[in-house]
Write a structure and sequence with these properties.
- The chain has 2 domains: 44 residues, no CATH class; 91 residues, Lambda Exonuclease, Chain A (Alpha-Beta Complex), CATH 3.90.320.
- By secondary structure, the chain is α+β, with helices and mostly antiparallel strands.
- Helices cover 27% and strands 22% of the residues.
- The strands form 2 sheets. It has a 5-stranded mixed beta sheet with strand order 1-4-5-6-7.
């Protein structure tokens, strides 16, 4: 018995009726029978192995670790719901400060929807302090985004 048969053996009649193609009882389509799955696929889906931070975010993360050593800093740990299915994921979340702090880092190029999303997030989540951080040369600039 292959692994797929073992998994499907305990299925009830409703599951069998809705998934006839898995059990070999599917009707023919266009004169050809629907192929039946006989084994589990070998490949598994993998999560992306891309780095979560770019160069500017990595540099600022090192600065955050030195500036707030007693705070817990998480990288892209929250996805905040805004209006009509729109979401916003800040680059850093800082726990253990006076209040929850969400930090967005930007380089020289700022895309079209990032700043409006940041402003909307600040208005939607007033208990979170949102900060916009960018680097000009070797100097980090910071702006608190008001709700």
């Amino acid at each position: 018995m292959n692994p797929l048969d073992a998994k499907l053996s305990g299925c009830g009649p409703g599951v069998r009726a809705r998934n006839a193609h898995l059990f070999g009882t599917a009707p023919a389509v266009g004169g050809k029978p629907i192929p039946v799955a006989t084994q589990m696929p070998d490949k598994r889906l993998r999560q992306s192995s891309k780095p979560t931070m770019n160069k500017i975010e990595s540099d600022y993360y090192q600065l955050l670790l030195r500036a707030w050593p007693k705070c817990e800093i998480k990288i892209q740990a929250m996805k905040l719901k805004l209006a009509n299915g729109l979401t916003y994921c800040p680059d850093f979340i800082v726990f253990g400060y006076e209040k929850l702090v969400a930090i967005e880092t930007k380089g020289a190029w700022i895309d079209g929807d990032s700043i409006p999303k940041l402003k909307m997030a600040a208005a939607t989540w007033p208990k979170i302090e949102f900060r916009l951080v960018w680097r000009e040369g070797n100097i980090w600039k910071e702006q608190i985004v008001l709700p």
